[in-house]
């Protein structure tokens, strides 16, 4: 069973502790939904007491599928049948991005369901967002601190989620990446994000905007000011849901934000962020299951990349290229995004 971990450029050690997969996702449900494709096992299910066979790998993103294949051939020559477990060891021993095409990777998302506690927390956060949005619709942009709205009447309320990558760990990373790659569409300032989002014209205003940010890494305390009229920005604390988040470690807070962004009618992220890219991949998979292959026209489930300028000063519409043979664009990022698969 895999563990989940964070990869932060700005090394906040206390935020990097790994979490067991089954603390976030339903283990049995995963195996049921992915039956015949991939399966997880628990170490406690093993029958013998042999030590694991240690398979040492190199640094993750420098590792290639050719090296993998050669290493597997070498393992065939040894007597490893007596081992029940192969332990992949090394610095960041990722098995991706070279190994799976996008379509196969996307299947994993169909097997991931949150454990009941986290699903309840996600539902509570979204209910709060929609309650604020409902009051915003009825009172214009003058939103009270404690809006009260029956859950049944919140269903029609739409919201926008923005993965607002302006935290200190990201700004260090994106500036270095721009210099190395000679691409100047990676970093985005708060002002640029606000200006481009304001030019999204397909939505009914006012609309509540949930800002997904890593609060513990955020140095700008003015992210709620300066938005155009009709955009009602909220983050965890002003929304009144910090009590839900603070009981969880950093990784689980990220998982809640992921689901809140995933389920938004409009999502806006950065195409060089793995977090944003995975959300758009997941949203694209959902649209494909619905028979939608393009969001070039107006759509009720659109995604945008705010770091790339689109039509009329808005962020560029974004769907994942599902025909790609590897995960390279997701693990490294890209400025070549499109509104169709």
From TrEMBL:
Determine the domain of life of the protein's source.
Eukaryota
Q: Which UniProt keywords apply?
A: Carbohydrate metabolism, Fucose metabolism, Glycosyltransferase, Transferase
The protein's GO terms of the molecular function aspect are:
glycosyltransferase activity
Q: Mind telling me which InterPro entries this protein's record contains?
A: AtOFT1-like, GDP-Fuc_O-FucTrfase
A single Gene Ontology biological process assigned to it is:
fucose metabolic process
Family as reported in the entry's similarity comment:
Belongs to the glycosyltransferase GT106 family.
Which protein is depicted? O-fucosyltransferase family protein
Give the source species: Dendrobium thyrsiflorum (Pinecone-like raceme dendrobium)
Biological classification of the source: Eukaryota, Viridiplantae, Streptophyta, Embryophyta, Tracheophyta
